[in-house]
Give the backbone structure.
Amino acid sequence: VRTLKAVDQTSEQTSEEADRWAAALAGSSEAFAWLFDLHHDRVYRHALRMLDSVHDAEDVTAGAFFELWRRRDAVTLVAGSVLPWLLVTTSNLSRNAARSLRRYRLLLRSLPRSEPSRGAGEMAEERLEASAGVRQIREALRSLSASDAVLIAMTAFEGFSPSEVATALGISDGAARTRLHRARARVGSALESSVGKFLTTGPEQGAR
Amino acid sequence: MNETELDPVFASALRDALVAHVEGTAQHRRRWRWRLALGLLTGTGVLAGGVAVAATLLSAPGGTVNIPLGSPVAVTRTGTATVALGSPPKGTSGISWALTCLSAGSFTFTGPGGASVTCSAGSHSSDVQPLRPGQTSITVATGPSISWKLRAEYVKTVATPFGVNAKGETYGVPEDLNGTPDLQEAPLSAGVPGGYLTTKQLDCASGGDVSNPTQAVAWNTFRQHTNTVIPVYKSDGTTVIGSYVVGPTGPGVQTVPLSTIAKRFCTSTRTPSTTVTLPRVVGEPEAMAASAIKALGLESQTTYASSSAVSQGDVIAETPSPGAKVPIGTLVLLTVSTGPPTGS
């Protein structure tokens, strides 16, 4: 039932991504921008799942890409993609957005946004809440440990297989499956039913 | 309606910022390492002068430094493990750690404020996490076959004081512990290491006092296609050594002077000075006139006189005259009408 768009990426695409990443590491800003274009919507959607406001989710999205560059020496590619690393980082930044984004504060303030952020945040939240049980998902994800939340979000929403997530988190395949099972049991059927709704009405429409 | 895509205006500005950042820091990193090495060398020469002295050489004033307390613990482990650090010395505010990943993997420092690290074999990460009450150890959670090396020690995080220049302005890095200095260190993207922006100009250029939805709409519309260039100063707050662009760049973006923004969006920061312009309150009811004057930081005193031209309870005259620039705290004399003279 899950939409496997990340896994659907052909091996050519993932090897192109790995090439671009290598170019970015060598200092190519163009290659880095290409990676941004490829992943920013998914990173943003993941941030929206963890946070209450559109404004914060935008800030965390920006933060994740700045961190991708700042910590480029320590980034692990999974199946040739930086996305898992970005999503793990997004989860961590979301946990304490105010503190973790302090170093980018000036920069974030100078970026323009199309609508007043507060009003837009509230409106978007209302829309999301009306359309799907987003709040339920958010609370369910928050009740889990950071890595369990990443496990759930990456398998349920972003179409990664448990073993790919295991690589991103640096845990064994078996451990990922066990923890996924346990996490699912903990958040219960509420999440499963909301996920179903969210998948049909939510992020998939905006996917590239 | 596409609520699940990143705002295109924000995305495009962020993309530009990332490109500039990548271009700027690919070179900057080398320079910074060199500066750091120099700082360390200089630091060893003054070790007798104390840790704080050495530490200030490594960070701009106002930044935080972590002073080590006690001796560091270094261990090598495989899988999830807890490292005991002993009881924290008095004054400990955090634990500074440096992790070397011996196998590629992801690591979680358990507890609130704990970090997560994903790294390849042989790479390092470090951070300072706040000390929880009663905490005497640090737990690193990872996969069972993943090896790592950890060096950890108790530290006290202190803010270094801001510098003060000849004009009496403070300068340094804005940090939560200290507040905001008058001159704050320019971002790396300004390309002028050691340069400062005035907080007042920066605040105004980044939206000033936008505080309500109507203003925010106006600001966002304005910011989408305009930017502003503000000067980068030396720490003296006078010598201009560069410039910094606030706002988007690219085709169709117009650069406007700061004064244009100030006029529209920075009304209250424009006159934070010690003088105010006296408003015209003649003809206003006494209570309104008095509160308008009080709101400007002035004092008022009322005398009463009869008047056939001004209705009872309204202000006949004010001293000094309306439009005068007066220091905050000035006493303003109001003459209030008691109505037409009796017996005429």
